[in-house]
Amino acid sequence: MLSRRGRGDAGKGARVAERTIAGVGVCRWALLPLFVVLGMAVPGLAAAQTPSYTDVTLRCARFSESVRGRLESAFGSARRAETLGRDGAIEVRAVPDSAGLAVEAWYDTLTVFREGPEGRFAPDPDGIFGGRYLGLLDPQGDYLSSVTPYVPAALRDIFDFSRILLHFFPPLSPTPLLPGEEWTDGSGLTIWRLADSASAGGSVSRYRWIRREDWEEGVGVGDSTVVVHRRETEDGRVQWRAGEGPVGWDGTMEASLEFTNGAGQSALTQEFRVRREPGSCR
User: Fold this and answer.
1) b/e per residue 104-115 (b: at least 16 CB within 10 A)
2) CA 115 to chain centre
3) pLDDT at 90
């Protein structure tokens, strides 16, 4: 299993701490189906399943994503509350590799905004177009990055786009699950299989996951490095269709960052929604 770690690339001062926490996860998601869901369990069709990411499910796919968040920070006597968001389309190509899948992904469309006491800031995203994410994805959704695109500073002030794919793909159980069963890795990740549903495109398997992480890392502040304590909780649901792969997922992510020297803290609450679009990538 590939590691999701590799966090901690930060810039300067309080703003860096804020944008670092804002960049966590698209980490990765009460699910609205991609197709019209009939709202019923499908009797007689449920069987133990082990969905996985393969070149069949991700050979050439296009996903629309929408993320909305609220960021609250306190540094000394200063208090800030901001909202931030992005909407875009991510194209993904995958081919088999000895370690899983070799993934190439890029933004085809993107809008980004951040709104605070000074007003609304919506930078031009053109600088990221044409850039590629390259990495390895294992069958359960762990992603190891090898190349990230150039990201203009104006976009980095809102989201850490270099880490978008680290939590983009929902985690999957490595063992078969029947509806009502669960699997845990013993380290903060639990996955449940929910009741199947029917849609215009056929039977859909539904899963829920909760992931909790807690760690410390160094953040550069000027010429020094300050240790910060970070916590993340992600609660999401994914719909999976056999032979096609993930057709949609959504959920929430809560993250906090606290300087161990007492200098300040930030808290981010994010809602995300991702849908697979009909057809293949361009």
Assistant:
1) ebbbeebebebe
2) 21
3) 96
Torsion angles phi and psi, residue 86, rounded to 5? -150, 150
Residues of the chain with confidence (pLDDT) below 50: 3-45
217 CB-contact burial (10 Å; exposed 0-12 / middle 13-18 / buried 19+): middle
> Comparing C-alpha atoms, which of 4, 37, 33, 8 is closest to residue 20?
8
Which residues span the domain enclosing 92?
A: 13-276
The answer to whether position 77 is within a domain reads yes
Closest by Cα among 268, 226, 238 to 85: 268
1 belongs to a structural domain? no
Count of domains for the chain: 1
Assess if residue 258 is contained within a domain: yes
The pLDDT tens digits of the residues spanning 135-156 come to 999 999 999 999 999 888 889 8
pLDDT digits (tens, 9 = 90+) for 254-270: 999 898 777 789 999 99
From 174, 252, 246, 165, select the one nearest 205 (Cα to Cα): 246
Has residue 7 been placed in a domain?
A: no
In the chain the beta strands, taken as DSSP E runs, fall at 60-75, 78-97, 100-116, 119-121, 133-137, 143-147, 182-184, 189-193, 197-199, 202-221, 224-241, 245-259, 264-276
